[in-house]
Each structure stands twice: as structure tokens, then as C-alpha cells.
Specification:
heterodimer, A: alpha/beta, Rossmann fold, 2 domains, 7-stranded mixed beta sheet, 5-stranded mixed beta sheet, 20% strand, globular, B: alpha+beta, OB fold (Dihydrolipoamide Acetyltransferase, E2P), Chloramphenicol Acetyltransferase, 3 domains, 6-stranded mixed beta sheet, 4-stranded antiparallel beta sheet, 11 helices, 18 strands, 23% strand, transferase (chain B), acetyltransferase activity (chain B)
Chain lengths: 327, 433
């Protein structure tokens, strides 16, 4: 077992899957020679050559469109959108083509493609490099949306996504790339898509989160423990389809639920999680379901003070957790 | 900041009140002393004034609900006082984050609001939520509280703090009259009516008790139980009074605008006699007898539904006209349901004009905690013997019930005799003013 970073886990997963399956190839902006702007694909160009690690033009629609075509041909493309903010030109390809291919062809065709996209803020990236885009894709049947939080889950879920027979939107939190480190086994393993994971056992409140804010919640839980409250923390890991069973189980455990995500609060994935709990286990609830998200203004103020105001942090999450625990 | 408004002490011996009508609703802004609700208590319908200026945030007592004196009726949010310091820059962003907090606190402040899981657990485990002290925000009962009880880690406990608070508030209320201070109250044991099995026959009508009827019942039982009643009666010749009244009543009506009845004359005589025999203007106080200096006369006034006993304050300082006016005003107030607690408290002796409905003899129940009650019976023409001759005279019986702990037959006999003499002496030289 080695301690590696979140970004290293991605690199390892890509390398191992490309070794394992000749049909896997990478395409995206600067993924080849440069090894990616975040160095995610570093060393892969040297190892697998220009035919399996393709530098593309700055045209996201083309990146995904080429991927869909290749997938239809039997390949397993891993398309990188350099920043999730840039995914918008490719939405038609992802939503109307990739996600619908199996359904529209009555099962004759499928699209085993992964679209990787670094998302989220806190890196002083400004409005074009800080957005959370998951909510837009979380009501598209035919598409899976995965957003791991730890190196272990990252590696296991990326492998699962690559091996999946249908398209997966794979979201990587860019602030987590080098911030988050963790144990990852040397041997080959996968983490199943569609399964949430309890990251901390607790009795008093349930916090449901993913990505960067999950780590903040874990830190806040340590502080809350000193106040005498224990927090039960669930990592969603897959955002679409949601792991309903795990969500309801976690909600029932304490009857007090706080959903935390970095995305804007209104219309965020937290609303769906809250609705699910309200529908299924109202009579186990001991407090109103609470959500904590970013204020409903555009993500990524460039001004440092404003960015700090916009982004969640362990203190803000602690306050919300403490309030719910006290209730 | 929210202040509590509690059920006020609306008169002597009042222990509970029924909220008959709310005059405000949640969200209304009220000024101090504005009436916020109508309360029916011990024979009184009264408006409860607001003790604060602010906004009604919560109404606890529902219309028709009977709650003890000092119990919470509603909550009023007081307008925030001006901060002496200019608000600092640091404090402003806080409100952005805590906007939800205040809402949540206010919305769930009431102890009686239970979460779905708490209600479910209470049903499953047959727990009485009213007897459990909550550890959540503002005393809310949390699911964890119930889990601990179910696991046997703590016991279902009566909310002591809550009850204690009510008692302290009741105790700290200013007492309306001095009798309550001087006399240790004895507990009234009311027979539990629900325990009595009553068989209803076809066509029987069941009349639910009103607050007033309940109070009358309790007061009567209390008086009959605690006070050893003794009774005396004397016959008066009121021919002189009858002649005098019929001579002046038309002029009086024209001049004063209301009818001159016999009652003010009787009250006048009774008050004068009480001055001679102050012992009848007294009350039993367990280890002592308290003789009252002020003569405040309770006058029984009946309506179709109930009996009220408003008080003529300092009756000894009033002329017959003054008494007539006071009686007229109190009777009017009683009929209109406008008696205030002030009108009802402080009586030291009661006069009841039972003759007004034709009674010639009655044995009244003493108006607790007073020592005696006097009735004036109907005036009837009777053949009587005067100087060995038979004459037809207007006669009237006067009856006195008295507390035999305080008074004996001799003094009461003397009292009645003196009273009789005064009543009989009314005639052409009587002055009204």
C-alpha cells in the first residue's frame, strides 16, 4: 500500500487500463507532449505514443464527437476536457449523442467513453476555471456522473468508468489533485460505479457530500467531536444515478441530515438528495433537512477575498454541522 | 427578544382563566396596555392588556382553553433596543450566514413541536412526550433523547423546570387585594364529576359547564364545606318606607333618570348597622379573626345564567342616592357583561335582595371568605297586631346567614334588631341625598 496523491491515482489508473486494454486511448488538449495542464497524463505519451495519446485542437465538441465515433468503432476513448468550464460546446455531443446512443439504436450501439473534466474552485482560477458543472448532467439518463474524493476511490472508479460499456462523465476536483493524498493498493482493483461510501461513522448528524467539501466536512467533524457530537459522513462518489439505498440508510441513522456541496445551493445536487430523503424517510427525520452550498452567484470570483467568501471551508461547514447537532 | 405574556391574576381566589377570544393574531404589532385577548375567569370577563410593546410571535393558549394563573398565553417579540455602539463592519457578514439560524430557532422554538421521528418513536414505545425534558435547541425533544430513554440510559422525566417557572411567575404577581396575603388559602376539594356515573334518559339535555358556572359551584361548595352556617330571621314593618318611596319615586325617576328601588334603603341601613357591629364586617382566618375597617358591600346580581356579586366600595360613605346610583351602575354592567375584576373584589359583607323575585324566606350561603350575608325578602301586606288592634301593614322578612366560627347568635340578633329598627324608621323625614 502506497500513499499517493489524487492526481497520481488518475495517472496510475490511465496507465494501468491502457496497459490492460489496447482499445483504451486518450484524447484532449495538451494531454500528449505536455502531459496535460495539470500533468495528469504525464509520461503516457512517452509510454503509449502519439496514436494512443492524442493532442487535439481547442474544440471540445470535436474532442467528444471524435470519442463517440471511436467508441462506436469499438474503442474505449478517454476524452479530457481541460477545465470542466469548457464542456459547454460539447454538451450536445454528450447529452444528445453519447448518452442516447444505446437507447436510440434500440441496444444495437453503445458508447463506452469516459469524459474526464477537472471542476471546482479554490485555485484562484476565476470564472472560467472554477465552476461545478455536475448538476447540469445529473438528469440525463444514459449518462453516468462520477466524482471521487479520495485517491483510492479515484483510481478504482476511473478504472470502472473506463471498463464501463456506457458513457461516464468523470469529474475530478482540481483543488484535490495535489492537496489530497491517501493509501492506494498496488494491486489491480475497482470501485463500483453507483455506490456511495461511509467515510466516517457517527451518531448525531449525517453529512452527505463529495469532492473537496467532503474533506472539509471530515475536518469539521473532528472539531465537532470535541464538542461531544459525532458526525456520520457519506461520500456520494457517484452523482448520477444516486445511491439511494446508502443515502436513505445514512439519513435514517441519525435523523438529522446536512447536504454539502461546493456548487451553488439552488438547483444543486443537494436538492435531489434532500427530496429523496423527504420522500422516503420523513418519519425518521428529527430535523429539517439542511443544505449548505455556495451562494447563488457565479462561481469563481477572481478577487481573493471574494473567492474565500464564495467557497465553502471547514469553518463554514462546522457552523452548519454544529447548528444541526444542537437542534 | 421575546417576552412571555402569562395569565394574569384577575381577582381574589382566581386560580385559572379561560381565553374566550383572541383580539390579536400572530404577526400583529401591539402597544403596551393594548388589549390582546378576552379572558373569562372567576365571574369576570376581562380584557388582558399587553405587558409589552412588540409583535405577537406565538399564541400558546387557544380560544376556549382554560389555563392556570401565571401560565404562558402568548409570546411577544420586543423591538430591539438601539445598540449604544455603532454596528461594526465585522458583524455584518455574520447575518449572511446565520439568516437560516434565526428562522429555524423561531420556527421550532415551541417545546410542543415534535419532529416526525420523535412522534413515531413516542408512538412505538408509548412515551408521554409532555413528561420528557428535551436537550435540543430551546428544550426541543430530540430523537437522541428518546433513544436514550428507550435504551434505559435515562428515565422519562417530568419537565420540572417548566412547571417551576410557572409557579414562580404566579407567586411573583402582585396580589389584587390584601385578603389573599392575610389568609392562607385552603385547597378546595371539588368532587370529581367525571367519576360519578350518570345515566342519561331519552330527551335529557346535557349542559356543559361554563367557566362562571364552574366558579359558582366551587365557591358554593367551598363556603358550605368550610363555614358552619347559622341562620336568623326577623320581620320588619316597612309601611313607612313603602309610603315614602311611592311618594318620591316618580320625581326621582324624572330627575335622575333611573328607578329608585328599595335596595339602596336596605343597604344604607345595613351599612349603618355594620358600623355599630363591626364584628359582622369580618372574616375567619384560621388562627384569628380579621375585622375589616372599610365597608365594601357585595351586592348579589343575578342574570339568567349566573350570579354575580359586584362590590360597592366604601358603601358607608355614600348617601341613599349614592348607593342607588352605584347599584344601578353595577346592575347595568353585570347585564352587559362588562364587570371588571376591580368591580368584583374586596367585598366585606353581602346583601342579597331575594325579595325582588318574590321570596319571603331564604337561607343564603355565605359569600366566602366573608362572615355573614343578609337577604331582604319580598314586601307583602299582612294583618299584624299593633296595640292589641289588627292592622294591615307592609311587612318584610330579613334573613342573616353567619359564620358561627366568627359570630354567635347574640351579636347577630342584636345586629338584626338594630337593622330592623332602622328599616322601620324610614318615613317622611328620610333624606335621599
Amino acid at each position: 500500500m502506497a500513499v499517493i496523491s489524487y492526481i497520481e491515482a488518475i495517472n496510475q489508473a490511465l496507465r494501468e487500463e491502457m496497459d490492460r486494454d489496447q482499445k483504451v486511448f486518450i484524447l484532449g488538449e495538451d494531454v500528449g507532449l505536455k502531459g496535460g495542464v495539470f500533468k495528469t497524463t504525464e509520461g503516457l505519451y512517452d509510454r503509449f505514443g502519439s496514436e494512443r495519446v492524442l493532442d487535439t485542437p481547442l474544440a471540445e465538441s470535436a474532442i467528444v464527437g471524435v470519442g463517440i465515433g471511436a467508441a462506436a468503432y469499438g474503442f474505449k476513448p478517454v476524452a479530457e476536457i481541460q477545465f470542466a468550464d469548457f464542456i459547454m460546446p460539447a454538451v450536445n455531443q454528450i447529452v444528445s449523442e453519447a448518452a442516447k446512443m444505446r437507447y436510440r439504436s434500440n441496444g444495437d450501439w453503445n458508447c463506452p467513453m469516459v469524459v474526464r473534466a477537472p471542476y471546482g474552485g479554490g485555485v484562484h482560477g476565476g470564472p472560467y476555471h472554477s465552476q461545478c458543472i455536475e448538476a447540469m448532467f445529473c438528469n440525463v439518463p444514459g449518462l453516468k456522473v462520477v466524482a471521487p474524493s479520495t485517491p483510492y476511490d479515484m483510481k478504482g472508479l476511473l478504472k470502472s468508468s473506463i471498463r464501463d460499456d456506457d458513457p461516464v462523465l468523470f469529474l475530478e476536483h482540481k483543488r484535490c489533485y495535489r492537496l489530497i493524498k491517501g493509501d492506494v493498493p498496488e494491486k489491480d482493483y475497482i470501485v463500483p460505479i453507483g455506490k456511495a461510501d461511509v467515510k466516517r461513522e457517527g451518531e448525531d448528524i449525517t453529512v452527505i457530500s463529495f469532492g473537496l467539501t467532503l474533506h472539509f466536512a471530515l475536518q469539521a467533524a473532528e472539531r465537532l467531536a470535541k464538542d461531544g457530537y459525532s458526525a456520520h459522513i457519506l461520500d456520494l462518489r457517484t452523482l448520477y444515478p444516486l445511491d439511494k439505498e446508502a443515502i436513505l440508510e445514512a439519513a435514517r441513522k441519525t435523523g438529522k441530515v446536512l447536504i454539502v456541496h461546493e456548487d451553488n445551493k439552488e438547483g444543486g445536487i443537494g436538492g435531489e438528495v434532500a427530496a429523496m430523503i423527504a420522500e422516503e424517510c420523513l418519519f425518521e427525520l428529527d430535523a429539517p433537512i439542511k443544505r449548505l452550498g455556495a451562494p447563488d452567484v457565479p462561481a469563481g470570483p477572481f478577487n481573493g477575498v471574494m473567492e474565500k467568501f464564495y467557497m465553502l471551508n471547514p469553518d463554514k461547514i462546522y457552523e452548519a454541522m454544529r447548528e444541526l447537532a444542537d437542534f | 427578544m421575546a417576552e412571555n405574556v402569562n395569565m394574569p391574576q384577575l381577582g381574589e381566589s382566581v386560580t385559572e382563566g379561560t381565553v374566550s377570544k383572541w383580539l390579536v393574531t400572530v404577526g400583529d404589532t401591539v402597544k403596551k396596555y393594548d388589549p390582546i385577548c378576552e379572558v373569562t375567569t372567576d365571574k369576570v370577563n376581562a380584557d388582558v392588556p399587553s405587558s409589552f410593546s412588540g409583535t405577537i410571535t406565538e399564541i400558546i393558549a387557544e380560544e376556549g382553553e382554560t389555563i392556570p394563573v401565571g401560565a404562558l398565553m402568548c409570546k411577544i417579540a420586543i423591538e430591539a433596543e438601539e445598540s449604544p455602539m455603532p454596528s461594526t463592519v465585522e458583524s455584518s457578514p455574520v447575518s449572511l450566514h446565520t439568516g437560516g439560524t434565526a428562522e429555524m430557532k423561531q420556527e421550532h422554538g415551541a417545546k410542543q413541536r415534535y419532529s416526525p421521528s420523535v412522534l413515531k418513536m413516542a408512538q412505538e414505545h408509548n412515551l408521554d412526550l409532555t413528561k420528557i425534558t428535551g436537550t435540543g435547541m430551546d428544550g426541543r425533544i430530540t430523537r437522541r433523547d428518546l433513544l436514550k430513554i428507550v435504551d434505559g440510559k435515562r428515565t422519562g422525566k417530568v419537565a420540572d423546570t417548566f412547571n417551576m417557572k410557572v409557579e414562580t411567575q404566579a407567586a411573583s404577581l402582585p396580589r389584587v387585594n390584601e385578603e389573599n396575603l392575610a389568609v392562607p388559602k385552603q385547597k378546595v376539594s371539588t368532587p370529581d364529576s367525571s367519576a360519578v356515573s350518570v345515566r342519561l334518559n331519552h330527551g335529557d339535555q346535557v349542559i356543559p359547564l361554563t367557566a362562571v358556572r364552574k366558579t359558582i359551584a366551587n365557591r358554593m361548595v367551598q363556603s358550605k364545606h368550610e363555614t358552619p352556617h347559622a341562620w336568623l330571621m326577623m320581620e320588619c314593618d316597612v309601611t313607612g318606607l313603602v309610603h315614602y318611596r311611592s311618594k318620591v319615586k316618580d320625581d326621582f325617576k324624572e330627575k335622575e333618570g333611573f328607578t329608585l328601588t328599595y335596595l339602596p334603603f336596605f343597604i344604607k341601613s345595613a351599612v349603618e348597622t355594620l358600623k355599630e357591629f363591626p364584628k359582622l364586617n369580618s372574616q375567619w382566618a384560621d388562627d384569628k379573626i380579621i375585622v375589616r375597617k372599610g365597608i365594601h358591600l357585595s351586592v348579589a346580581v343575578a342574570t339568567e345564567e349566573a350570579l354575580y356579586v359586584p362590590v360597592i366600595k366604601d358603601a358607608d360613605q355614600k348617601s341613599i342616592f349614592g348607593l342607588a346610583k352605584a347599584v344601578d351602575e353595577l346592575a347595568k354592567k353585570t347585564r352587559e357583561g362588562k364587570l371588571t375584576p376591580h368591580d368584583m373584589t374586596g367585598g366585606t359583607f353581602t346583601v342579597n335582595n331575594t325579595g325582588s323575585f318574590g321570596s319571603v324566606l331564604s337561607a343564603p350561603i355565605i359569600n366566602h371568605p366573608q362572615a355573614a350575608i343578609l337577604t331582604m325578602e319580598a314586601i307583602v301586606k299582612r294583618p299584624v297586631v299593633i296595640d292589641n288592634m289588627i292592622a294591615i301593614r307592609d311587612t318584610m322578612n330579613i334573613c342573616l346567614s353567619f359564620d358561627h366560627r366568627v359570630l354567635d347568635g347574640l351579636v347577630c340578633g342584636k345586629f338584626l334588631k338594630s337593622l330592623k329598627k332602622k328599616i322601620e324608621s324610614y318615613g317622611y323625614n328620610t333624606t335621599l341625598y
